[in-house]
Amino acid sequence: MKNFKFKPGFKWLTIFASLTSVSLAGWLIFAIFTQSKIQNIPVRIVTATQDKVEDKITGESGILKLDNQRNIKSSITGTVEQVLVKIGDKVKKDQILIRLRDTETQIKLQEFASDLKEKNLQLVDKQSSLKRAESKLLETQQEYRNIQSTHRNDINKKKDEKIREIQKRRLEVTRKKQALTAKQTDLKESKVKLAENKQLFAKGFISETELKEQEKKVIQTETDLSNAKDELSLSDLDLQQQRLELQSFWQDVRNNKSEPQQKLKEAKSKIDQAVQELNQAKLALNQVMREIDKLKIQRQKIAEELRKTVITAPIDGVILNLQAKLGDVIEPKGDVLVIGDPTQQIVELKLSPLDATKVKIRQQAEISIVGFQSQKLTGKVQQISLLAGDTQNNNQGTDNVKITAIVRLDQVNKNIVPGTPVTVALIIAQRDNVTVIPSEAIQENESGTFVWIKDQQGKAVKRMIKTGLQGLDNIEVKSGLKAGDEVLIPSLETPLNEGDHVVIKMQ
User: What's the rounded Cα separation, in Å, for the pair 160 and 156?
Assistant: First the structure.
């Protein structure tokens, strides 16, 4: 068989084609291998929004009460003789609610009244001198009050005059300041106009006369400004002078230098003299008076005991509960009824000392009824106790130390029964209409605070931000982001690095 031989040119072409195929295959294998090494990091994506941020103390338990809600107790032992109210009744302050029976005390009161009447008969012949002394004392006291009233009116009149002068001078200073500001504005405008005229003059657009006229205006405006400053200084000095005069006036009053004050001293001396004469008259009756005073004190104690048999309303309110009924024997400090003010509702809650330091008077609060999520009430912090207390007397652990706070509801909800447990959220701080993102999107390193964003190539990029108020779930972004920007949230298992390829996973 005849050997077949390639031509030299065709042979080299075949070799070159083979080498090209091998190179392309190598590059293809390398590209596939490299592509398999690029890792797509799964992340969640959130959008910055325009919203509000609230820093809250949440989950605090409290009890809803009526304002001035209190337990009324008996101060004595007695039998319930009358119950004049029922649960739900509205009562007025000092209205009689319950009467107790105490026969023994009533008999003692009658006996002391009889003894006192007998002693008073012994004083008839000696009371005329005592009455004259009392009358003289009343006259001197009235004289003192008259002088005092005149003196007070005189002081108030002069004080008002001084204050009106100060107000007048203060108003004048304000007007002078406004005039000074206007002159400063005029001068500024004149100088600007002069600079423009100089340029126009240099270009030949205006005459030298017009330029000089503007220069005169600037000089005149400077003079007016200087005069305005001088007038303001004079008015300020006048105002200070009026204030010093008022201080001097009060100093004279405090030092008792005025003539009416000297008359007051004389009238006070007459009162002291009348008191001495009254005391001398009382001394003449000393023995009998001591006996009468002793009887009066004893009778007063008995009458006080008898008054305790009548239980009255301490406030205008409504009866919330009755623990006593007709015929019951009530012991001292025994609960009789519960009363409260139906026009105001409050929530009493216990705070930890750390949380209590964050709470301020008049801060807003949100109240939720336990078991009824639809019932949402609002209120404001009315009172924070200055004394921490142990929630259990037999437990001295620091975890039980609480501070009482009172929240007053903005509106009364008559459908909620006093004593209902509630949950309170106290709003410590709030920002409205700001750029916010979820707190979990915030990242930090030695350079500061940043978030992850995705560039056009799908890679993770850091963006430095400045944060503001930290809420429970979100945080304010002061700079670095705007509403609508998308932020990446990496998983805890797969942290992000700069330049990582990311893939968005489902929420």
Answer: 6
